[in-house]
């Protein structure tokens, strides 16, 4: 089975002032916190880049394993990541008997 990913609802009591001027002040429950491995995070960032500017879903790139995403995008991201993982998992069982002559 592929690497596990965890999607949890981000709950914040109040927006905290950021030390960086590029960070946005986000309202409470602005989105979902995604915890995943680095390759999965890069794939999610790739999906975000394919979207037009007004449809981008990443609110904040937190660190190497965490993203804050828009609430509405959660289901779409989960479906696309699961499909991507299914495509990229090799199983030796699927290959058994592939070239057998069945005549």
Automatic annotation (TrEMBL):
Which keywords belong to this entry?
DNA damage, DNA repair, Nucleus, Transcription, Transcription regulation
Q: Report the domain of life of the source organism.
A: Eukaryota
InterPro entries cross-referenced by the UniProt entry? TFB5-like_sf (IPR035935), TFIIH_TTDA/Tfb5 (IPR009400)
Q: Which Pfam families match?
A: Tfb5
Q: What's the chief localization of this chain?
A: nucleus
Show the Gene3D superfamilies listed in the entry: TFB5-like
The annotated subunit structure for this chain is: Component of the 7-subunit TFIIH core complex.
Q: What does this protein do?
A: In NER, TFIIH acts by opening DNA around the lesion to allow the excision of the damaged oligonucleotide and its replacement by a new DNA fragment. In transcription, TFIIH has an essential role in transcription initiation. When the pre-initiation complex (PIC) has been established, TFIIH is required for promoter opening and promoter escape.
> What is the designated name of this protein?
General transcription and DNA repair factor IIH subunit TFB5
């Amino acid at each position: 089975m592929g690497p596990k990913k965890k999607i949890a609802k981000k709950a914040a009591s109040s927006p905290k002032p950021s030390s960086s001027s590029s960070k946005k002040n986000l309202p409470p429950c602005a989105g979902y916190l995604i915890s995943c491995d680095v390759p999965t995070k890069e794939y999610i960032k790739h999906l975000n880049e394919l979207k037009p500017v007004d449809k981008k879903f990443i609110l904040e790139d937190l660190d190497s394993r965490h993203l804050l995403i828009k609430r509405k995008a959660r289901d779409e991201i989960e479906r696309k990541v699961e499909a991507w993982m299914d495509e990229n998992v090799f199983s030796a069982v699927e290959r058994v008997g592939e070239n057998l002559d069945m005549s």
